[in-house]
């Protein structure tokens, strides 16, 4: 009996599944962002939607350096959060992920804490964000206590908290919108940038 059920699932037309995915994508993402009850599904959805972002990176005003930092950081989607973590093997916290991606992709050695990273580069208005900018939030009752990497289309990549994994979230969700503190654009000297 279970064999027949599996065969029925396997024979479902792929085109229908893809159509269902695209028609329900926004609704499902909204639900997942608020509940995170399906982390693997969220991770897969994020990989699919970000494939579009990679193809259209120029739409977001990306230059090679920030694009490289985003590409480096995206390799760690799904890696577990670890307080104080700063490497793929042990896991990352928010500032560890940003510092690691900046050093590996741009050759920049950033400070280790989010509040110190908030002093790097130049300040950027929210309506002028570009792919690769650092976005900061107040999550612990003080400014610049959390950092992520802006991806474009109001999305950012970050290491959220203990028990969670590196993921992409929308800055338009109420939680992040009301905790947003600002953004910085890293300045990469041409001789320092790794491409």
From TrEMBL:
Coiled coil: none annotated. Keywords: Hydrolase, Protease, Thiol protease. The keyword Metal-binding does not apply. It holds the Pfam family NLPC_P60. InterPro entries: NLP_P60_dom (IPR000064), Papain-like_cys_pep_sf (IPR038765), Peptidase_C40 (IPR051202). GO terms for molecular function: cysteine-type peptidase activity. GO terms for biological process: proteolysis. Gene3D superfamilies: endopeptidase domain like (from Nostoc punctiforme). The keyword Nucleus does not apply. Residues 63-187 form the NlpC/P60 domain. Belongs to the peptidase C40 family. This is C40 family peptidase. It comes from Castellaniella ginsengisoli. The lineage of its organism: Bacteria, Pseudomonadati, Pseudomonadota, Betaproteobacteria, Burkholderiales.
């Amino acid at each position: 009996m279970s064999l027949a059920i599996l065969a029925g699932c396997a024979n479902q037309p792929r085109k229908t599944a893809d159509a269902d995915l695209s028609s329900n994508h926004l609704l499902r993402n909204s639900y997942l962002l608020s509940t995170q009850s399906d982390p693997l599904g969220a991770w897969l959805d994020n990989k699919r939607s970000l494939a579009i972002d990679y193809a259209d990176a120029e739409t977001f005003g990306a230059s090679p350096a920030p694009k490289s930092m985003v590409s480096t950081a995206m390799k760690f989607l799904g890696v577990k959060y670890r307080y104080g973590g700063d490497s793929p093997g042990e896991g990352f916290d928010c500032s560890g992920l940003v510092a690691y991606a900046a050093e590996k992709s741009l050759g920049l050695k950033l400070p280790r804490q989010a509040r110190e990273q908030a002093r790097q580069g130049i300040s950027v208005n929210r309506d002028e964000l570009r792919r690769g900018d650092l976005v900061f939030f107040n999550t612990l009752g003080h400014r610049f206590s959390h950092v992520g990497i802006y991806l474009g289309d109001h999305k950012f990549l970050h290491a959220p908290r203990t028990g969670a994994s590196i993921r992409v979230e929308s800055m338009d969700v109420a939680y992040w919108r009301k905790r947003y503190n600002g953004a910085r654009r890293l300045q990469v000297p041409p001789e320092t940038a790794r491409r």
